[in-house]
Structures are given as structure tokens and as C-alpha cells.
Amino acid sequence: MAQFFEVHPEQPQIRLLKQAAECLHRGGVVAVPTDSSYALVCHLDDKAAVDKLRRIRGVDERHHLTLLCRDLSELASYARVDNQQYRLLKLGTPGPYTFILEATKEVPRRVSHPSRRTIGLRVPEHPVTQALLEVMGQPLLATTLILPDHDEALNDAHEIRQALQKQVDAIVDAGACPLSPTTVIDLSQGEAVVLRQGRGALGTLGLSG
Prior knowledge:
The protein is an alpha/beta fold. The chain is built from six helices and ten strands; from the N terminus they run βαββαβααββαβαβββ.
């Protein structure tokens, strides 16, 4: 049965986030709020947890997972970023943007795209997600919490509990999130390519749709 942590959406109780972090360090999969819907997260280095996350989400290894990072400096440890890409990243972080970049050797090969060696990276703006990343002291591997038979992400923690209480290990409830996916920008081939227009405005990055 999943643990359930009710936290304040802007000033989350650190003691509860520490319990969620302990769950992640033990190999758990946790549902957390972000600035673009709820997400499933797990420890980057735990193969069994990553496999479990993919099973719950109903995706295979070709589906891009995303690394949630605290800031740009942490992001740069896990992706190869040139000066032009860095300027674009700086405009969109923190915020509801996911950037596809070439992964460094810090990223386990099993969690990057199998044929392209790329990874999705994001610096979320939600105070709860940021606080959890701070408690963890490292990035978390994430995917949007969309169930296999659904088209939209789940946005209510109690609904998530009802649907997944026997599959996830914990749920962090900070109330409803904006129910809109991130804007996904592929920077791995040089020029910026918009793969999905979501909550993040392209104009903020100086791009057009």
C-alpha cells in the first residue's frame, strides 16, 4: 500500500519529503507534483525501479524518460551542452520545458534512448519538486503520470491513490497541478526542433511554432 504524504504546495514540510526521499533511495516509485501535471519518479541508478516505472506507465525503452534536475549546473553534468544550447536552456529553466540532449556518461545507458543516446532533461519550477530534489541531492528520473489506458495525465492525488496504491510506493499530495504537458524541444541534432507544444511558451525561448 502506497504511503501518502500531504504537503503544503509552496512550503512543503521537509520531514515528509525526507520520508519520500528515503522511499526513493530504497528503490521506490513515487508520484509527485510538477509545474505541468503529476509525474512518476524514481532513483536514476536503480534498474529495478526504472523497470517498475516503465511498467506502471506502459512504455518501453524507446520512450524518452526525463531527468529532473535542480538547476542548470546539475543539468550540464548529465548532458552535452554547447554555448548556443546553454543560452536557450537558460531562457527556459526553471519552467515547463523538457529538452532532449545528448547524454553524458553520467547517465546509465539503460535509461537513455537506445539508438540515439539522448535523454530528456528538465528543471521544474514547482516548489515541492524542487524541495524534493534538494533533499535527494541528485536528479530524479521521471515520466508524466499518464496511465496506459488514458490520454491525459492524472492530476488529483486521491485519484492517483485510488488507481495506483498497489503499484507505486508513495504519493506526494500538494493539490492539483496545471494539467498541461511540458513543451518538448529536441536540441540533440543542433537546431532546436519542437517535438511537442505544451505549457511552455515558445516565445520565451525565442522560437516560433
